[in-house]
Amino acid sequence: MINALASLGRFGLSALANLGRAHLLLLAVLGGTAALLARPRLLVAQLFNVGVLSLLIILVSGLFVGMVLALQGYYVLSQFGAAESLGVMVSASLVRELGPVVTALLVAGRAGSALTAEIGLMKATEQLSGLEMMAVDPVRRILTPRFYGGVISMPLLAAMFSAVGVIGGYFVGVGLLGVDEGAFWSQMQAKVDFHEDIVNGVVKSMVFGVVVTWIALFQGYDAAPTSAGVSRATTRTVVHSALAVLGLDFVLTALMFGE
Amino acid sequence: MANTRTTEILVGAFMAAGFVALFFLAMKVSNLSSAANDDGYRLIARFDNVGSLKQRAPVSIAGVRIGRVEKIRFDQNTFQALVTMRINPRFDHIPDDTFANIFTAGLLGEQYIGLDPGGSLDYLVDGSQIEHTQSALVLEQMIGQFLFSKAEEGSE
Amino acid sequence: MGQERPQPPNPAPLAKATESPHAQVDDMTDRDPSAPLVKIRGLHFVRDQRLIFDGVDLDIARGKVTAIMGPSGTGKTTLLKLISGQLRPDAGRIVVDGEDVHRLARHDLYRLRTRTGMLFQSGALLTDLDVFENVAYPLREHARLPESLLRKLVLMKLEAVGLRGAAPLMPSQLSGGMARRVALARAVALDPMMIMYDEPFTGQDPISMGVLVTLIRQLNDASQLTSIVVSHDVRETSSIADYVYIIANGQVMCQGTPAQVAAEPSQWVRQFMDGLPDGPVHFHYPAATPERDFLGQGPRDA
Predict the structure, then answer these.
(1) Which residues of chain A make contact with C111, given a CB cutoff of 8 A?
(2) Hey, is A88 helix, strand or coil?
(3) Is C56 within 8 Å of C250 (Cβ atoms)?
(4) In sequence order, which residues have a C-beta less than 8 Å from that of residue C106 and are 6 or more positions away?
(5) Residues A130, C141: contact at Cβ < 8 Å?
(6) How far apart are CA C150 and CA C134, in angstroms?
(7) pLDDT tier, A53 (very low <50, low <70, confident <90, very high otherwise)
(8) Which residue of chain C has the CA closest to A130?
(9) Contact A156/B15, CB-based, under 8 Å?
(10) CB neighbours of A239 closer than 8 A, spacing ≥ 6?
(11) Distance between CA C132 and CA C138 in Å, rounded?
(12) B51 burial class (0-12, 13-18, 19+ CB within 10 angstroms)?
């Protein structure tokens, strides 16, 4: 019994220590912002790694999600005779929720785990130490560009996901299922509000971008410098990112879309 | 290391595609283009009951949207709802004896203000009040009336 | 052989095998060129509840190759990290060229690091850059050089380690020994005043070993470098070292020139230097008596 309590206490303390370390790392990463502006090449390389390389999975997933939304939505809406609102349903779901959230989950799996593995391996092969010995701050040189690469890429990827999803929904709804084309777009344009839906969706994806990239970088930097340690860290990145994104999504939705 | 030039071009294309997507969403998917005209002239109308009329609800004439509900306030002196509407300045030939009704779009839809044009030769200008209004239909009242008239029929 | 607990190999540190060739300097921040480049006094360091260093005093002489030897796990790499400021001691002072390493501001610490080089056990080359770019990295970072001059410098450093022709290769294409030599070229890129070698001979075939040994000595002499070699390869290290420290159990067990240490009579030092399987460090891990385990007599020991 005492042992269980002691373990719980130890677990709690180590969780707090992790949280503290993560925040200290974030501060150090943000401290390198000015230095990054002097070396835009590093940022460009990371935008490529995180953004461009995730494009394929984002676009394909967006397309399929949009098409499925249209299919499912049509069957439900036509029961109420409201099939004309399919456009609104598809686009509102995408822009408000599915775009930011699914993009964040996919990016965490693809780019987040890659970031963690890369940094963990650099730690294990002493490259980070080597940089320190060459009087180069590894946090500023390696982590800061990756952080901004993720933060900038995420909203753009989410917008592309939603856009492609709407187009996919259009093809299925109007092309396959016969919903009226005019109604599809006009209802959508009437009901989807720029400030409330689109801007909020972009803000959500920015928040997710910060959280997912931060988790990925921290897990890599904190990983035990062994192969088992790196693999554990990669798993933790994906799991923690998913939980954080879904949890934050609830909080943000309540804040933004509640009355 | 991959060709730097190729990388730069691809990243540029990525950023451009992202902005295009945002632009597409803003223009084609949302109401940005039509909601951009927040200018226009104001009209006021008083209702006994606005039902579930909301801010930004459409204002239409002959089914064509010409403006939006800007504000809904409660007048404590007359116990009426005071609705301010913003009308697109293109539509400046609305007669001043027009009726303002609160209709429901579709069976379950949201409520909007429908204007029934009158025949006057004077037109509404910024700040004018629409005199003739009809409040929203409340379901319970209609049922009550129905039952009442049924009861009257029965007792004759 | 029925011991319950292992005896510590040496309950107390030995007196120095000989007088240190340098006078004891009281003033820790003395920049006199005949004074040691690195002075460590009273170093105390604990990690994961293990006492790694328990009051260690060390001097690293300028312009000489100093070897730090000892059994695995005694914290030799930790010592290098403490000297370079990557780790903080719990007590004690480390002074490099007159500057107290752990009192320096970040900026000054980084400046000090540009004057020291470190060769890691695995080379620690950046895997996404080729050999040329790896060696050029510190030059690009800290020196504003025109590209043509930079190119010549990098190729000169590579020439010094015999790998000028390997400049376009990627680290993944290099053998372990070659990677270490490239890392060495990178470590000397900024012409440091001191280089630290972390287990440079571990796992090398005889030829690469010979190359490295020669390089370390030649570089040290040609450029007036100070070299610190951490290793447990007794024979190779002794062949090039000017002065040797043997560290175990968190203390300096023995120090002196290689000849003096080789003549040291202490049993423990003899076992280490000669690689004897049994001695103060026991061959058998503590266990029950053989009768109990093999003949099954009586209850087992705890």
Answers:
(1) 135
(2) helix
(3) yes
(4) none
(5) no
(6) 13
(7) very high
(8) C124
(9) yes
(10) none
(11) 11
(12) middle
| CB–CB contacts below 8 A, A to B | 93
What's the maximum distance between 2 C-alpha atoms anywhere in chain C? 81
Cβ contact, residue pair A44, B17, below 8 Å? no
Q: What is the count of residue pairs from B and C with beta carbons less than 8 Å apart?
A: 3
Residues 6+ apart with CB under 8 A from A256: A196, A200, A203, A204
Which residues in chain B are closer than 8 Å to C129, comparing Cβ atoms? 1
Q: At C291, list the tokens.
A: 């009768």
Find the closest chain C residue to B2 by CA distance.
Answer: C128
Full DSSP string of C86-145: SS--SEEEEEETTEEGGGS-HHHHHHHHHTEEEE-TT----TTS-HHHHHHHHHHHH---
The tens digit of pLDDT for each residue in C171-225 reads: 999 888 888 889 999 998 888 999 999 988 888 888 888 888 888 888 888 888 8
pTM tops 0.80, yes or no:
no
Q: Please check whether residue B114 is in contact with residue B104, taking contact to mean a CB–CB distance below 8 angstroms.
A: no
Of C208, C120, C223, C199, the closest CA to residue C162 belongs to C208
Query: Do residues C225 and C192 lie in contact, with contact meaning Cβ atoms separated by under 8 Å?
Result: yes
Q: Which residues contact A4 (CB under 8 A, 6 or more apart)?
A: none
- Residues on chain B bordering chain A, Cβ-to-Cβ distance under 8 angstroms: 4, 7-8, 10-11, 13-15, 17-22, 24-26, 28-35, 56, 58, 106-108
Residue B101's nearest CA partner among B35, B53, B41, B33 is: B53
- Hey, what's the torsion of the CAs at A152, A154, A160, A163, to 10 degrees? -110
Total length of chain B = 156
Helix (H) / strand (E) element for B26: namely none
Residue C69: CB atoms within 10 Å: 25
* Chain C residues within an 8 Å CB radius of A125: 122, 124, 127
Residue type, C141: E
From A126's Cα to the closest Cα of chain C, the distance in A is 5
- Partner-chain contact B14 A55, CB within 8 Å: yes
A132: nearest CB among C86, C126, C127: C86
Residues from chain C that touch B1, judged by Cβ atoms under 8 A, are 128-130
Which of the residues C120, C134, C182, C193 would you substitute to probe the A interface, choosing the one with the greatest number of A C-beta atoms within 10 Å?
C120
pLDDT along chain C (302 residues), means of 10: 41 41 45 76 84 86 88 80 87 87 86 88 85 91 89 91 89 88 90 90 83 87 88 84 86 85 78 77 78 72 48
- Taking CB atoms and an 8 Å cutoff, what residues of chain C touch A134? 113-114, 137-138, 141, 186
Q: What is the dihedral of CA C208, C214, C217, C218, to 10 degrees?
A: -120
Distance from CA of B119 to the nearest CA of A (A): 31
CB contact under 8 A, A91 and B29: yes
Q: Are C122 and C66 in contact (CB under 8 A)?
A: no
